[in-house]
Amino acid sequence: MQGFIGRSGKVAVKKLSKTDEVSEGQFKDELKCLIRVKHKNIVRLLGYCWETQEKVVKFNGMYVLADVRRRFLCFEYVPNGSLHDYIKDKFHGREWDTCYQIIEGICHGLYYLHNEECISHLDLKPENILLDADKVPKITDFGLSRHFGIGQSRIITETIRGTLGYTAPEYLDKGELSFKSDIFSLGITILKLLKGSTDPPDLQSWHQSLDLDCPQVKTCIKIALLCVDNDQRKRPTIRNIIEMLNGKETMIEMVSTVNGNSRNNSGPSIKKAKSVNDAHSMDIYVAPLPQRITTEANSSASDLVDDQVQSMSLLAAPSPLQRVTVVPKGSGETGTQIRSLGSTEISKLLDVHPLELRFPFEPYKLIERPMTLTNRTDHPVGFWIIPTNPDTSSHIHFQSYFLWRGPSCCFQIMEPNSTWGAVMTMKQCEPPPWDTCKFEVLMIVMSSEEPLKHLEEYLTSRKLNMDSSLVKRVEELGGEVHRAMVKAVICDPEAVLHNQKFKPPMLDFRHIRYVDVHPTEPWILMAQDGGHVSIWNYQTQERVMKLEVTRVHTPATLSRWARGSTSDHWWFVFCPKFIAREQWFAAGDTDGWVRVYSYTTMDKVMEFKAHDEPVCLLCVHPTRPLLLTATYNDEWIKLWDWSKNRKFENKFNTQRHGSERLMWHPRDTNIFASVSTSNVKVWEIRSSHPTATLKGAKKGCYLYTESNRHLMVTLTSDWRTSEKDTSQIWDLQTEECVHKLGLSGSGIIDDIACHPTLPILATRGTARTVCLWDARPTYRLQKIIRLKDTVKGMEFIGTENSTRLFVFLDREVTIVKIDLGTVRTNT
């Protein structure tokens, strides 16, 4: 039935007949599935109701008063009828673009059901697929659907329901249900659509209505035959099918207007622009080519198709990017067209990640997702990102300092061997955006930056659209164009992992000067004003111990105190450090002394005069009884051995540069590094001369690698330079910068932290942002942490099984549990 909401909102109302009646529990279970299903290729449930009336009915020969229940479902109105009606239309065979769009839409809807909601439809057929005004297919009628639990892959039932001809053989024979049951029904549906008849598909009659020279037709025939294999193990998954569709689309010639001629796009995903000068006209579509289908599936399909279909390649593309070029049109036509050359050697050195941005929607909440572009070539690369739909910017956009071109597109030049991280943000809204958003990504490789800057001028003046004229212009400048497509989709809200806060009410963070974290116990060591050192349990928010470090009054300090030049009010304890294996902690002070205490007995273990300046830096060797000490102003770094009665072992001259950070190498513990305001130096403990010097670097941190390569991450020492947004990764053996990381939307990167035993990197931005990176060679941005206070420092603690990032703020400590499954995604 047709109904109305308001004055003009049409809806479809379905009244369940008596034969459709199910138990109240089953009805509610089905509703729970339908309510959460939201996808553009699935008919949307708008509401439901049921009513109970008392009626006189005849029962066992007698008239009784009984409760009669009626149930109603309210769906969005879909005006163009069912796919069954469309197939019977004798004219539909002339509209291959529409036919392909329908197949693609059904597959995307089924992918959502299987992979996002774990729902098997179990009655997929043309009658249960509706078409909207634009012929977009929408799956409907979930009366037989089943929800699969976590880890569940099949269901055995004794009740056989469904539609003969579309029901999988294992269901009919053994009552076995799985996602592969839907795949069989999908194959039959595609075959009937290709045949152009609702009769049982006749494979011999394909050639009469289809052009087998079209790659899309070949792909769809291949998919359909794989789906209807009697052995469910040989059928592809819906993910395989989507990948096959996307992969074959990259082989289609996409024609664009160059010389004033009209467009003739053979791909259904290409929307025709209203004018040639429309900055948002899209003539390029790309997605990753499919993964390799199983050998059994290939062999089973080869028995049914001719040589033309067998020649189709199902190999996976080694890169998500494809190179595109411009070629002349065919004979009798003018102008040029874009053609994909597939993945090339250059494409393999470029990376866009992820290809699907998943937004866990929550009403009226700002949602962010990271996106990373990597250039591992020795050439500069300009990347251009633009949505395929101009309306996308109304709800999804990039947070960045990109050079914006139009409402929602951006252009940025990347240096050779560099990575750029960006933040895509979904604005606060209710309800969620309905359609999947797609962003076109072009990565333009040039021999130098000058042609890219010249190209940028064209983009600024809107002289080029993202069509064959752009590709042609790039090739005239001696460059290459590589492209990818990124989708932004809505998914269910994630399970919230709340960051732990350490903020005891009795602790005043304004008086905290230095903090250290115990490697195994849930303890934080703090140095406070007035010489107080305390240990806190960050899980229970309780203090474990408190100790007052007393000043050593030497004749020199007493003399200065008597003259009024110094007092205990200006005396501080600096840089406390756990020495966990001894159950000690060490701390420096204003007078240049180092004191070591037992945190179990609170007794002083030792003390010694280390420098004439305040000892502001301590660094404990991970395995040996060695301690490095340094000051901010003194040029000397000193090495001490506490097992030899605090014997002075060696000293290292930083050449008039004080130190700001000391660290031991994570693999070779005979090596350490010192960081000053203008350089980073690497030392071997048996030598007084640095083995490497990185000039112009600051805030260094050793980067753990899964190879024997010695890498260090640094920041530029001059925030006024053009590299103020980047951090550099250095090879310490060659003293060369091998890669750079850039980040948009988080301000200037002003601090870094690396995990000592895992390839994970954290960067801190001036915009109160901490970003987590997968520090393997792809250098992908994986997570963004927005904070409400200024970040003062960061430190990784833990092993692969339990890793946490401690973020020290002005008024609290935030403890972020690191999910390595999220941070270290598969490359």
Structural class: alpha+beta
Strand proportion: 35-45%
- In whole angstroms, how far apart are the ends? 51 Å
Biggest pleated-sheet summary: 9 strands, mixed
Helices, by number, come to: 14
Specify the CATH architecture of the domain at 83-249 and 287-320.
Answer: Orthogonal Bundle
Find the CATH topology of the domain at 83-249 and 287-320. Answer: Transferase(Phosphotransferase), domain 1
The CATH homology group name of the domain at 83-249 and 287-320? Transferase(Phosphotransferase) domain 1
The shape, in one word, is globular
* Structural Rg: 33 Å
Oligomeric state of the chains in view: single chain
Q: Strand tally, please?
A: 51
- What integer is the average pLDDT? 75
Relative helix content: 10-25%
Q: According to CATH, what is the class of the domain at 83-249 and 287-320?
A: Mainly Alpha
**Low-confidence spans: pLDDT under 50, at least 5 residues?**
248-318, 400-409, 717-723
State the main characteristics:
single chain, 827 residues, alpha+beta, Immunoglobulin-like, nine-stranded mixed sheet, eight-stranded mixed sheet, 14 helices
Structure description:
The protein is α+β, with helices and mostly antiparallel strands. The chain is built from 14 helices and 51 strands. Strands 11, 12, 13, 15, 17, 19, 20, 22 and 23 form a 9-stranded mixed beta sheet that branches. Strands 14, 16, 18, 21, 41, 42, 43 and 44 form an 8-stranded mixed beta sheet that branches. α3 (96-116) packs antiparallel against α8 (238-249), α5 crosses α7 and α7 packs antiparallel against α8.
